[in-house]
Design a protein that fits this description.
- By secondary structure, this protein is of the alpha/beta class.
- The strands form 2 sheets. It has a 3-stranded mixed β-sheet with strand order 1-4-5, covered by helices on one side.
- A hairpin with a 5-residue loop joins strand 4 and strand 5.
């Protein structure tokens, strides 16, 4: 089983190396406004970013859709939220994935 999780934009030491810390502090109010009105994928703190990874690890793999990715999001006041987003495939890629799954089932599931 393979699943995809996206933590969203998370403020960590890695982001502080990309842009100086004082720039993030200046952008902080703008990020909250964007999160409240435009996008809920700006989770900002690492614990909310890891929420989808933790949630995904606790699910039964056979119950999850292999053609979906799970996004860590947050409500405007900061409560965690998991969104399921269907991944778009081209027809030839989808056919290859189906063939790989059949091979996996026939050779490794016996």
């Amino acid at each position: 089983y393979s699943n995809t999780a996206c933590p969203g934009l998370v403020m960590t030491e890695l982001t502080n190396k990309i842009v100086p810390k004082f720039v993030w502090r200046l952008l902080w109010p703008l990020l909250f406004i964007i999160r409240a009105f435009v996008s809920n994928s700006l989770v900002i703190n690492p614990s909310l970013g890891a929420h989808s990874l933790f949630w995904l690890s606790r699910q039964n793999p056979s119950d999850l859709d292999a053609n979906a990715k799970y996004l860590s999001c947050s409500r405007p006041l900061g409560a965690p939220l998991i969104q399921r987003q269907q991944m778009k495939y081209r027809v030839d890629k989808a056919r290859i994935l189906e063939e790989m799954e059949k091979l996996y089932i026939t050779h490794f599931k016996s």
